[in-house]
Amino acid sequence: MKNFLKPLLLPICALAATAVTARAQAPVPSPVSASSSLASAPTPGAANNNTTAPLPPPPTPSVPADGGTTPAPSKAVWSEVRVNGPYIAMTFDDGPSAALTPGLLDLLKQKGVHVTFFVLGSLAKDHPEILRRAVAEGHEIANHSWDHPNLGKMPDESVSSQLNRTKDIITAATGKPCDLLRPPYGSMTALQRHWFHDQLGYKIILWSVDPLDWKDHNPSLITRRLVDGARPGSIMLAHDIHKTTIEAMPAVLDELLAKGFKFVTVSELLAMELPPDPKKASSSSPSRPPRPSLAPGVPATINGSVEPMPGPTPALPAAAPSPSATPKRN
Fold first, then answer.
1. Which of 195, 210, 230, 297 has the fewest CB atoms within 10 Å distance of its CB?
2. Is 168 labeled as catalytic in the residue annotation?
3. Catalytic residue among 127, 144, 239, 242
């Protein structure tokens, strides 16, 4: 029996030995190649083109031709300025007033104070002589739109007309360029902010001290709010179209001068601006810029986000309602 099976078993044993030798010599796949095989396996329902898409290259940093680093976006909006010294900028909106602005100019000349007037084109066109006198006496003329609409709610064509017509009136009257803009109510959209600054070349000027003289026609109250709110670098708001504001100005100027403040135009204040304080920036959380006080019902869209209507500043003295006070605008 053994002699009978021996011819049959020999070929079987030879085949088994060959299989074992081949298995021992086969390379063992590494974990990486195994995972790659899984990763490259076709997804059910997806086309299999047997190719692997290359990874996109990393973004190339933007470097100017001079080899420097890309500059940070320039600042577009100011409500106050960080300065080294007791410098402040007094600003007057909504004029010129044929009845009131010349008297204010007389007072400013007497006190040796220079200010910035944000004028309306619809009034400036009728009184270019007031603009010329203001510039000749060291003051600055800036754009406050044609007739004080809410620019944030207007189509682009209308906004362009508001700004360009006023700018043309200012340039024709004074012979000087106009690169300062205060949108009525401080209202603008995020896109308008970039448009005004990046394309039209305006520095957008808001304010940090608001006496609410458009609402509270009380010279003593206006004086207290302006004097108590002043800080180095403040941009002060007032209106040269209200008789009570003009009546408050002698006391306002005298008290601020007595405190050591020095009045400059907005452009002069901006030229003094210091870089941000790194210690303050690193030790405190980012703070929101001061919000202007707006006329009732007007949303502020400063810096691109709609702001709730600011309420009255708690530290300010309260005023009794005046029948003649007609809340209007900034």
1. 297
2. no
3. 239
Structure tokens at 153: 């709610």
CA distances from 48 to 36, 45, 84 (A): 15, 9, 68
* CATH code for the domain defined by 77-276+293-304: 3.20.20.370
Nearest CA among 240, 242, 222 for reference residue 230 = 222
Q: Is 127 a catalytic residue?
A: no
Residue type, 217: H
- What pLDDT, in 10s, does the model give residues 249-276? 999 999 999 999 999 999 999 999 999 8
Q: Which of 93, 94, 216, 240 is catalytic?
A: 93
Annotated domain spans of the chain: 77-276+293-304
Query: How many Å separate Cα 315 from the centre of its chain?
Result: 27
Q: How many CB atoms lie within 10 A of CB 13?
A: 9
Q: How many CB atoms lie within 10 A of CB 325?
A: 18
From residue 1, how far is each of 4, 5, 10, 11, 14 by CA, in Å? Answer: 5, 6, 15, 17, 21
